[in-house]
Amino acid sequence: MTLGCARLRRASFDRKFVSALVMVVASVASSACSKHLPLAAPAAKLSLPTRLCATGEGASTCRSAHQVEELLAGRLTLLGMADPPSGSQGAKLLTLQGISAGRPVVFRVKWRPQSSDDLLNESRKELAACAVQKLFLDDAEVVSPPTAARCLGLREYRAFAPTTEPTFAETDCVFGFMSYWLEDVLTLRAARERGVLAAGDGIMDAGRFARDVVYRTSLANANLLTYAINHGDAHDEQFLLQSTTRGFRAFVVDNSISFQSIKNPMLLFREDWSQIRVPWLPKNSIERLEKLTDDDFAGLGNVTELERQGRDLVPVRASERHAKSDGSTMSWSGNRLRVGLTKLEIDLVKSRIRELLARPDLAQLTRPR
Fold this sequence. Notes:
The chain has helices spanning about 1-30, 65-75, 125-135, 155-160, 190-195, 205-210, 215-230, 285-290, 295-300, 345-355, 360-365; strands at about 35, 75-80, 85, 90-100, 105-115, 145-155, 175-180, 185, 240-245, 250, 305-310, 310-315, 330-335, 335-340. The chain is an alpha+beta fold.
């Protein structure tokens, strides 16, 4: 009987392994066939400013990450839906209108409905990555675009996708995750063509790293994030550069293959940024990581909450009815939906950060430049 149970467990493991392997191969094949389209025009004129504020910048030329998060959490009107320039995971580029300081604001987001998820590629992990970066980065230092969980009204949604069905029973909305769309950014190829990055050096340009403080700090913080979440597809093309008043700022996007051991096998032929690849790390970021407590990590289990109000599902602030994490990705408590990291994902982040802090060369990596 014991032997039979062992065989059953082994067979179950083998099936899971084969299933995961099939998903990896499918993901790679899908990536290879990924579309490459011109960037669609917004459905309405975008409200200025569109750029996220970097450290030391005034509000007149940029929008703070906090302001963007408030936009994403507020009342939204869907103005348009288009295909993004690239990708193969069912993402859409939405033009939305929200309200900021009592005024209408038109902006764009990358949207992935939860229905587009598969075994390896989860839209929720964009939200999870943003939660992890907040453990050690301030508002003006973020290296991944602000992201929110939303449930978009079915009637508006069907104007662009007529066959869409509601995600949850007793609601009339489509649940997914939206990330602020970074306007006027450079891909790796464009940065090389314009001379922003040296040819052939990937996203890591040693010359710019030495002379451009904004680039150096943001790329190093981006590497800290891709390391902490064990990014499974963190190759050079996942990075974007945006010009600021003080230098070029690096962002990392497409974090949906993270928080797990299985990675895109194409990383065997690319630079894997889930490892520390920069020659210097910001001391203040490391000091914040050193101060993290078990409670800080536990908070990742409940990143955001939404509440069923009538047939809608709307973002709400945590209150005395705070939905406690049960260690899963999402769970309902009455009319409230909690979204966060699993216990295994939290443990992974915690262990990787602690491994980094235990590196014997950490003092050398954080030395002043």
